[in-house]
Amino acid sequence: MSNSKTSRRTAQQPVVLIDNHNSTLRPASSSKHTNKKSKVSSELYTLQKPVQPTSTEIDESIIKDAYALPPGTGDIANTPLTLDVSPKNPQHKIDTTDASCSTAQSGGSVSTDMEMDQPIDPASTSTQQRTIPVVPVDSILILPNLVIATPADTVKGKSASDKKTHIRRFFGTNGVATASVRNVAGKSYVCAHFSAQSDVDDALKRDTAPLTNSQKEGASAPTFTLFTTIKPDKTEDEKAAAKNCTIQVIDIYLYRKGADVRAAFSNFGNIVKLSLVTKGLYQNAYIQFDSTVASTYFTENAWSHFIYEDAVRVLPGPRRIHIILGSNFV
């Protein structure tokens, strides 16, 4: 029994090989397992991060490096910093010293490389700012609108546009500005507009046979006269009377036509003149009647009306400004 235990202990003990050259003991290598010795580092492993410098310390180090402060100076807030403005080049320093000495001996002023600006007198500056040159400006003259006209049926052309084209071409050498078609008392007239009285006089002397309407039997050459003889200018009293018979209708939708406005307001009297003007997304209508019935009604009774299902606002002629401002009338 004891022999078997001794044999087991002997088998479990490792075999030690002796190397005569190195005199080191090493265990015999096994075919399956090899003893590996772990590497041990001599450096200590630190569990904490190194302390980072603060922003103040970083600023101090930068300033010390920039101005070459001696180590151990201390707090930079209590240490005055001196800036070395002496030239880095020794030869330049010697030249500057010699120049200053020579200037001092001669009694002159020291010259530098930089030219200094002379101080500006505030009084002279303010005077220069106040004196602004006045440039003469010629006023733009308003050219007169001198109009001559003739009945439209005496001028050749199938449409009003063709008639205006023939008028512009015929009076082109007389300085015609434009041509238009106007209706007076239910009759149509073709008009030629000029800006100088001399051009009007020359146009009235011309032979108008080339403008004859050949489609009309027995037609004669058109005769042009001043438009003021066909329709005299209104006097101030007539203009005031027309304003008293006029109303202004606002907030009319763009799809409404003049016929719609005329149909909605025709029950207030006979409409002499109606004009539509587009204002943004709406239209304004100026309606002139032959009496003051409509203007009186929309001044005393109502300030609105309907064009079919659309409600619109109405301002009576010359009093509409007072209505907007909320003034009282007498």
Automatic annotation (TrEMBL):
GO molecular function: nucleic acid binding
Residue ranges with Polar residues bias: 1-13, 20-32, 97-112
Natural source organism: Rhizophagus irregularis
Segments for region (Disordered): 1-44, 90-114
Protein name from the UniProt record: Uncharacterized protein
